[in-house]
Amino acid sequence: MLASVGAEWMKLRKRPSTWVLGGVWLAMLVFFAYVLPYLTADSDTGPEAAGALASTLPAELVGNAVAGYALFGGALALILGALSAGSEYGWGTVKTALTQGPGRLNVLGGMLAALGLTLVGMVVLTFAVSAGASAIVASIESAPYDWPPVADIVTGMAGGWLVLAMFALGGVALGTATRGTSMAIGLGLVWVFVVEGLIRASASALEFLDTVQRALPGVNGGSLTAALGARTVEEGGAPGVSTLISGWQATLVVAVLAGGFALVAGWLQRARDVV
Amino acid sequence: MPAAIDIDGLTVHRGGNLVLDAVSCQVAAGSVTGLLGPSGSGKSTLIRSVVGVQRITSGTVTVLGQPAGSKPLRSRVGYVTQAPSVYADLSVRENLRYFAAVVGAAAGEVDRVISAVGLTDKTGALVARLSGGQRTRVSLAAALLGTPQVLVLDEPTVGLDPVLRRDLWEMFHGLANAGTTLLVSSHVMDEADRCTALLLLREGRVLAADSPAAIRRRTGTDDLESAFLAIIDAEQVGSR
Fold first, then answer.
1. Residue B225 region, left (φ>0) first, then alpha (ψ -120 to 50), else beta?
2. Secondary structure (3-state) at A205
3. Alpha-carbon gap, residue A85 to A175, rounded angstroms
4. How many CB atoms lie within 10 A of CB A229?
C-alpha cells in the first residue's frame, strides 16, 4: 500500500495538470477574496465598502480561505479527482498497473491517499496565500493583525479539506464509472454548476426538493464552510455558501458522501473487467 | 520444455458474442511463441485471459502453475498492451519510476530497462513528444520492470519501422535466452518466422500449434502465409 501511495504521490506531483489546477485556484482566491473586495472598498465609502475591507483582514482568514471550496474550489477538486482516475483509462495505464502491480483496491487506495495528500497541500497553500494577502491588506490599511486562534485555523483547514476531498472523490467515482476524463469532468461540472443550482432554486416551491437539496454535495459543502466562518451569499460572500444546514449535520453528510463516492469507485474498480 | 502457460477449454463471450471457443493450447517455458491470426480472431481476448483481466465463460488458464490473474503472478507476468500504456504527460523516467514503485522494483531497475529498450537518450523527454515506436518501447520497458518470467505482448510491433521491429525481435530472443517466456501476438504473418513456436488462431479457435518449420512441413508449403491458408482450407473442407 505504501508503495502505491508513493507512486501515485510522485505521479500527481509531476503532472502539470495538478499545478495548473492549484495555480488557477490560488489566482481565483487572491482575485475574488482579496483584490476585488479591496478595490470595491477603495472605490466606495459606504457601509458595504467597510464590510468589503473588513472581509480581507487577518481576522477573517479562516472564512475567506474556505469560502470558495463549496463551489469553485470543489469544482477544481472534482476535476483533479476525475483526471486522476479517468486518465488511467484514457492512456490505458490501468491495465499495466493492475496486471503487474498490487491488488486493484490497493492501487485505488494509493491513488486516494495521494489525492488526500495533494489536497492537504492545496489547503495549506490556500491558508498561506490567504494569510499573506490579508497581511498585505492590513499593512496597507494600517489595520491590526488580529489573527484567528490556532484552533480555529486548524478546524478550518480540516473542514476545508473534507469539502475538497468529497468533491475529489466524486471526481474519482465519475472518472472510474465513465472510464475517462472528458465525460467525468463534463458531468461533474454540470452537476456542480447547473443541476444543484436548479434544485436549490426550485426547493422553495416543492417540498420534496427541499429534502433532496439537504443531501446535495454543494449545499452541504456550503453549509460546512459557512459554519467555519465563510460569509453567506446573502452577506455578500462566495456563491454556494449558505446556512441551510447546521455545521455538524453538514460535516456528517459531507463525510458520508465522501465515503460513498470512495465505495462506488472501489466497487467499480473491483467488479469490472479491465479494458 | 515444461509449459509456462497452460490453457484448457477456454471459452469467452464478450457482448453476447462467442470470442474464444474451447481453446486449448500450451506455451513452452523459455519460448518466443507467436499468437497469429487475422483481426477479430480473438488474439487480444486470449492475451487478456492469460494476464487475468478477462472474464471467462468456462475453462482454465494456468500461468507458471497458478490461475491466471492470481496475486502471486502479478510480479511474475509482464503485459504490454496493444496501444502504449504510459502517461503522455510524464517523462520516460517519471513513467518508469512510477511503474517501478507500483511493482516494487528497485530504483536501479529504471535505468536497466531504459537501456534495454534503447531509450537512454530520451530519459527526460515527455512521452507525448515521442514517436509511436518510442512510446511502444516505453510501454515495453514498464513491462520489463521486476524481470517478469512471462512477458505477454499484444501486437507490439504494429506501426513500427522495419529496423525497430528487427531490434525488438532481437530483444525478445535475448529475453527468451535468459529464461523469459514470451507470448507475442501479431496479425503480420512475416513475423511468424521470428518465433520459436506458433499458435494460429481464427474465429476463436486454435487451428495449429507447432513450430514454424513443423507447420510448413505439415502443409507442404514454403512460407507461413501459405501454410495458414492451407490449414484454413483444410478446416473448411473438413467441416463440409
1. alpha
2. coil
3. 5
4. 20
**Does residue A135 have a pLDDT over 80?**
yes
Cα A37 to Cα A62, A67, B54, B215, distances in angstroms: 16, 14, 57, 81
- In the beta sheet, which residues pair with residue B91? B126
CB contact under 8 A, B102 and A101: yes
A19 touches chain B (CB under 8 A): no
Read off the DSSP letter of residue A32. I
Q: What is the pLDDT of residues A162-212, one digit of tens each?
A: 999 999 999 999 999 999 999 999 999 999 999 988 998 888 888 888 889
Round the average pLDDT of chain B to a whole number and report it: 88
**Mean pLDDT along residues B29-34:** 94
Model confidence band, residue B165 (pLDDT cutoffs 50, 70, 90): confident
Residues 106-135 of A with CB under 8 A from B: 107
Measured in angstroms, the CA of B85 and the nearest CA of chain A are apart by: 5
Q: Compute the distance between CA of residue A25 and CA of residue A73 in angstroms, rounded to an integer.
A: 6
**How far apart are the C-alpha atoms of B141 and B228, rounded to whole Å?**
32
pLDDT score of A45: 67
- CA A25/CA A190 separation, integer angstroms: 19
Q: How many CB atoms lie within 10 A of CB A270?
A: 11
Place of cell 452537476: A191
Q: Which of the pair, B75 or A81, is modelled with greater confidence?
A: A81
* Contact (Cβ atoms closer than 8 angstroms) between residue A112 and residue A104: no
Delineate the domains of chain B, giving CATH numbers in brackets.
3-76+148-238 (3.40.50.300)
The answer to whether the CB atoms of B53 and A98 lie below 8 A apart is yes
In sequence order, the 6+-apart residues with CB closer than 8 A to the CB of B107 are B97, B100
Q: Rounded CA gap, A12 and A10, in Å?
A: 6
For A58, phi then psi, to 5°, come to: -55, -30
Give dist(CA A238, CA A251) in Å, integer.
19
Of the candidates B78, B87, B91, which has its C-beta nearest A100's C-beta? Answer: B78
CA dist., res. A249 & res. A253, Å (int): 6
What is the model's pLDDT at position B184? 93
Residue A239, classified by CB atoms within 10 Å of its CB into exposed (0-12), middle (13-18) or buried (19+), is middle
Count of H-run helices and E-run strands, chain A? 14, 0
What digits encode the pLDDT tens for the residues A28-46?
A: 999 998 998 888 877 766 6
Banded model confidence at residue B1, pLDDT cuts 50, 70, 90: low
User: Could you tell me if B74 lies within 8 Å of chain A, comparing CB atoms?
Assistant: yes
The answer to whether the complex's ipTM is over 0.90 is no
